[in-house]
Amino acid sequence: MPGDASNDPTDDQTGRFVVQPNGRVRPLSPHLQVWRWHVTMFASILNRMTGGALSVGSVLIALWLLALAFGPDAYATFTGWMGSPLGLLVWFGLTLALFLHLTGGVRHLIWDAGSGLTPRAADALSWASIIAGVVGAVVFWVLLFASGRVAL
Amino acid sequence: MSRQTRAFVKGVKVSERHGAGEWTAERLSSLILVPLTLWGLWSGFVLSGGGYDGAREWFASPVNAVLLAVTLLVSLWHMNMGLKVIVDDYIHKPGSRTALLGLIGLLCLAIAAAGVFFIVRLALGSAPLPAGFGI
Fold first, then answer.
1. Does B129 lie at the interface with A, CB-CB under 8 angstroms?
2. A73, A112, A115, B112: most buried, per Cβ within 10 A?
3. Does a structural domain hold residue B130?
4. CB A149 within 8 A of CB B48
5. Which residue in A58, A68, A98 is closest to B79 by CB distance?
6. Residues 6+ apart with CB under 8 A from B115
7. Which value does ipTM take for this structure?
8. Does B100 touch chain A (CB under 8 A)?
9. Range of B65's domain?
10. Distances in Å between the alpha carbon of B55 and those of A141, B35, B126?
11. Going from the N-terminus, what domains does chain A have, and what CATH number goes with each?
């Protein structure tokens, strides 16, 4: 209890309490290393990480447009880099991030609409979005190779 | 910043500043991006391995050019909001936060401006750059 002499948060030396901007002392919220691993947590972190990765991807899309606008020679240089094994790995990673962010985004829209919020449904939706994202990206690349559009 | 709005709507506590608007904008942009992303994946599939001529032919369709411009702009809007949330969560020093948010905003604006410029040129079938710019 705040103000309880036996457990005065202002005397606490463990760093469990922080002074809020309004001057009040409040317990620090437990962070990642304290939480038990859970799929909804993992799915949430994954959505943020893939969003960050896609921000880098937007720069690559801009470079693609730039190379195309600068003509055949610039475009050949660009596709040379991006068609290399390392380039293809980067684009596979971005495709995976895009699929996961898409399925994760749909999951969040379902939750924001007020559905699927019981623990069981939330777990199921999290797993479904992760699996659908990975399967989608793998199928996309299998089709790219199978149709001969991309070759190593 | 501190413009006060109604704290309650239909008996439900809502943000007194701009939080509700940001929340709505994030959801609205996600909703728009779901079909655009599916179209973008399909377009990426079609464009893969098509080379320079294939890409120029793709851009000759106004539908493709317009949809790509819309996808790019809505994505950058969504990206700007998403990165702002990440910075707000992890960067606690007001000065660093403002500077970082400014840089992210500039990056988004630069990509948007350059992207739309290139898309318009490609859609109009303009000669390869730097034609006419005297570089």
1. yes
2. B112
3. no
4. yes
5. A58
6. A61, A62, A65, B69, B72
7. 0.86
8. no
9. 17-123
10. 19, 22, 14
11. 1-30 (no CATH), 39-146 (1.20.1300.10)
